[in-house]
Design brief:
This protein has 241 residues and is mainly alpha-helical. The protein contains eleven helices and two strands; from the N terminus they run E-E-H-H-H-H-H-H-H-H-H-H-H. A hairpin with a 6-residue loop joins strand 1 and strand 2. The longest helix has 28 residues.
């Protein structure tokens, strides 16, 4: 996967290849881009070898740098793990914002969010190891609080979706939004842990696609709003534009 960044020069671009194991350029890379590269490398290494297998030399080799170059951006391994956690936070919360911009249908938002969470877990096994494992937070009270705050923030955003659905009649009003959000988290958290424990053999896709209909039937209101696609079809049938 490549992302393109533009620096202060009107003609100079930098490409960040998160899956490359080779040095991308001998040219100096802007600090934030280099920090992002390092954080992504940390995620890959944790996914492959766990936290115990993470060290400065391996991170440096992953992105084609000498170990001393890492110290220009991070004081040590623990700061790099925190940076990786920040990357997870941006993606996790960014997923919620993305689905809210994509549709106004609360049930559809939850379905799309579940798919995005599935994709995130599938792409990077380090995420459940960092968020749901004592391996990362044990002995680090500040990091444990940071992970807890991340999960609570995610849940609060899901709660907001649920409240919108309750107002529009799409989601049952007799359920507490907080309870629904925790149940939603339960759709993918155990599956992510099972996938990690089985080295990816547990079929997360199958689990989620079987769990979603059960969850939806349990929470949907009596008159859920039709999906955007159905609205378009009905308008066409009526000759509306």
């Amino acid at each position: 996967m490549e992302e393109k960044f533009l620096d202060s020069s009107p003609t100079r671009f930098y490409y960040v290849n998160y899956y490359s194991h080779q040095a991308m350029s001998t040219e100096k890379v802007p600090t934030q881009i280099r920090r992002d590269q390092i954080a992504q490398a940390v995620l890959r290494l944790i996914s492959q070898q766990g936290l115990k297998g993470l060290n400065m030399a391996r991170v440096a080799a992953e992105i084609g740098l000498v170990p001393s170059a890492l110290y220009r951006h991070f004081r040590g391994k623990e700061e790099m793990v925190d940076a990786a956690l920040d990357v997870i936070r941006l993606r996790l919360l960014g997923n919620v914002d993305a689905v809210c911009n994509e549709t106004e249908n609360a049930l559809e938002r939850l379905r799309l969010l579940l798919e995005r969470q599935l994709e995130m877990i599938r792409d990077n096994q380090a995420i459940p190891r960092i968020i749901f494992s004592e391996e990362v937070s044990a002995g680090h009270s500040d990091r444990k609080k940071k992970v807890y705050h991340l999960v609570r923030t995610f849940l609060s955003k899901v709660e907001a979706i649920v409240r919108v659905g309750q107002k529009t009649g799409q989601i049952r009003k007799n359920f507490e939004p907080e309870m629904v959000s925790v149940l939603f988290l339960g759709l993918f958290q155990p599956a992510a842990v099972l996938s990690y424990l089985s080295d990816g053999r547990y079929d997360v896709d199958r689990h989620i696609h079987r769990a979603w209909p059960i969850f939806m039937e349990a929470i949907k209101g009596e008159q859920p709003l039709p999906s955007r696609e159905n609205v378009v079809v009905k308008k066409r049938q009526k000759g509306e534009t």
